[in-house]
Amino acid sequence: MVEETSIVKQTPQRKMSLRWKWALGSAVGVFLIFILFAIFVNAAFSNELLRHERQQMQQSATVIAQRLAPLDSDQLDNASIEQRLRVHGDDFSEGTTDPIAMNVSRPDYTITFFTKAGKQIYPTKQSNLKISQPNKTYFFFKGKFLNLRVQLVRQEVIVNQDGQKIGYLLIENNLTAFHQIFQRIYLIVALLIAIGLTLIAIFGYWWSALLLQPVADIQKVVDHLKEDPQAPDRVEIPAHFHDELSSLAELVNDMLNRMQRFILQQHQFVEDVSHELRTPVAIVKGHMELLNRWGKDDPKILAESIAVSLTEMKRMEGLVQEMLDLTRADQVELTFTDGDTDVQEVIHAVHNNFQMIYPDFTFGLEDDLEGPTIVNMSRDHLEQILIILSDNAVKYSRERKEVHFAVSSAGPSVMLAVQDFGEGINPEDAARVFDRFYRVDKARSRKQGGNGLGLSIAQKLIEGYGGHIELESVLGQGSIFRITLPIKTKRINK
């Protein structure tokens, strides 16, 4: 037994819904944007704070050096330094109101004085730094890894009033306030990120659920159609909101309509074939049983049964071919998407052919086209349509053997007509003449070999190419079949 293989590639079970992917993707995207923004703001803010701290250190070092300028190198000692750093009776290290002195008295400042020989003489706080970069402000890093902290260092040369170097000044700024500010900022940023990611994830999930509702509707409809392929369910499309998902829903609805139409056509085909083949099969079976019982010994009965069986088999062959033609006509918009056919040339060819086949008939042609007129249609199909209509006109025109063809154009359409002057059709039959297997005169149609499918095939072909066919008939006076087809290209010979 041959294993059934699906033409659809099986995909593994999904582990995360598109909604969650959308929500998490939105959260990650916003997180990355927020981080980049936070880094930018942090860098700008920290640079501004450090610039301000650097400026204050430089100003403090300059003022202190100026206050010590009146001293000579041998006068640079603890007592002289303390004396010179007193401003308006205030002590440098204890609550001075001098702005510069207030800066250098900060708890995160360490001030050290050195002689010009490099000997430390006045430490306000103990320092392990040595004089290496006079008149420079630079960064110095303490600690390792997570405990790594940055501080500012300013080294200043002390010059007396005679321009002679008498010593050095070193100011260390541990940036305690700076680090405290940024610790608070980092905490606030972390809280904002956590809250923001939560809100963005919730909003993203809700928004994705709203946007993907058409997809959920499609899935719901498809799941229902798995259980009942003929269910009328369709994806609902918003009337005042149209986007790519709405277009997808329209495509799905169109696909479902086509699928159900093909299923109906398949069922109709099977039912029609089984119904129409029942009679000829029964006739052949009856004659074969007759021959099997006793008829084979009677040459007359044998010849008659064989003739009838061959006739019915030929009819079955024609019926099957017409059913296949009808099925192809139902799918013409899919199988024949492009073709250039000159209507004028085809109608002239069919007119000439029928003149030769039926010399006892009069065939007229009224051509009002200015030149070759092209329609998007297979030439074989257009010929088949005209032959079906012409053949019917000949069959039902026994008294007045006359058939007229006409072709003209009006705007974007070309119009063809086939007229006979035969029996005509009453209004009740005219309304059903394009139905499958419908015969106006069943006995006569069967005698003439008709299966009642010709007009159905013609209608399906015409509608498949975007055209239209209609019937005008008066009982006892004849019928006119009018065809309208859209023009693809119109060329006028000059």
Kindly summarize this structure in a few lines.
With 494 residues, this protein is α+β, with helices and mostly antiparallel strands. It is built from 13 helices and twelve strands.
Overall pLDDT confidence:
77
Shape: rod-shaped
> What is the number of domains?
3
Q: CATH H-level name of the largest domain... which superfamily?
A: PAS domain
Which CATH architecture of the largest domain would you pick? 2-Layer Sandwich
Portion in strands? 15-25%
Helix content: 40-55%
Radius of gyration: 51 Å
- Distance N to C terminus: 67 Å
EC number: 2.7.13.3
Keywords: Kinase, Membrane, Phosphoprotein, Transferase, Transmembrane, Transmembrane helix, Two-component regulatory system
Protein name: Signal transduction histidine-protein kinase ArlS
GO molecular function: phosphorelay sensor kinase activity
